[in-house]
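agent> Task received from the user: take the single chain below, predict its 3D structure, and emit structure tokens. No templates, no multimer pairing.
agent> Plan: (1) validate residues, (2) run structure prediction, (3) serialize to tokens, (4) report one or two observations.
agent> Step 1 OK, no nonstandard residues flagged.
tool_call: predict_structure(input=
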Amino acid sequence: MAVEDKPVRSHKHAPLILFNVCVGQFIVGLDQRALLVALPTLTHTFTTSLTTIQWVLLIYDLALIGLVITVGRLGDLFGRRQIYAGGFLFFVLASALCGISQSAGQLILFRGLQAAGGAMIAANGRAVASEAFPSSQRGKAMGFASMAFHTGFLTGPTLGGFLIDTVGWRWIFYINLPIGLWGAYLAWNLLQKEKEDLKGVSVDFPGAILLILTNSLFIYVMNQLPHLGWRNRTVVGTLALSAAAFALFVFVELRSRMPILSFALFRNRLFTAAMFSLFFITFTQSAISFLMPFYLQNILHFSPSQMGWIIIASSVMIVLVAPFAGWLSDRLGSRPLCTVGSSLIVIAQFFLASLSLDSSIPRIVIPLMLSGLGWALFNSPNQSAILGSVPRDKVGTASGMNTTTARTGGAMGVALCATLFTYGLTSAGMSSLQIEAPESWSVAPDIFMTSFNHTIHVVNFLTIVSVFFSAIRGRRQG
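)
tool_result: status=success, residues=478
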């Protein structure tokens, strides 16, 4: 049953609180994408391999996924103001340390610390917005938060490239400092200090540690699976450890007086269906995002800058449509919008799976824009449904679970996509040496396209599962 939330402060402060949340979403999206264009520069600067420097990205995902539910729950228990404002400060400090790093090892370590701040912002930001608005305006707030994140996503590569070419890669991190400090100041002054009765409140540290261990091991396996294969001892052993940690986590949580993750949340059909639909749709979206650059650059021979302009078509649609979709969900509920949105993604991915060696730019861009439209219609209403279907004292946990579900689905999507794609190349007679060298795929473009098309068709089937879960959820989120 949905829970009606009262605004955190008087209604006149709600827009400023939402603006503060948008600052947090923007900075996280900006940092995530700006760093992508710096990877070749970092490899050269630190005289290291791509295999090593990829951990600059991987460690952030591992730490974020491992921590986000825990810090969301801490916000539920001890007040959103301290955790959320502290997240900005932690992010700023870690960004400064990243900027002065003198080795790849230092940068990887400080990126892990930066992820802790990012987790505090991600888990509590949308929860702050949810609590600042009544349920009748929650969807609109989620729409603006989604727009802010994707604005950072769009700005990141361009700004990152500009900073690298002018003042150096370190400014990718230094630029976070003024934005982050401003976000911390706003959060501390806008949010009320919550007067909680902390008598009898305890933190489930064993559960938190086991959850971090479970998620980190599992995401590591998903990232390494395409490179090592299912039969590799490291993959099998790490997956077994993750399963054992999860079993122990469930055992601990079912017996904890104040668990990090309350399994009772899954008794709510709306919450459960929204989580499953989110998992499957991020699963397929990440798979497509993984394959498209190889198609555009290695087969159609677009330059990196041309490829970038093509790929952002979906994000442009999200920025334009997300606020409207959130506003509409406040009036119609999440079910019709999420069902329509996920259905549009199914259609878009069907057309992407039908691309060929001579597809024109409009033939590529239009399905990407349709996919972005579908995501915009799906995401904001789905987030509003997730946060509106839980009690107020669990909203931080729900926000953290939203992030964890999306990131986990994305990692699994990339792993399965890479496995299916390479299997297709192998079945067509490509050697392992050719498969490991994407630049050689253009020698046999027909083989690439066959595997590309089949892989997208397979993963697109899972998007239909997302349509199903979107359609069977409750009628409204409250």
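agent> Step 4: summary for the user.
Residues 265-478 form a domain with the Growth Hormone; Chain: A; fold (CATH 1.20.1250.20).
agent> Done.
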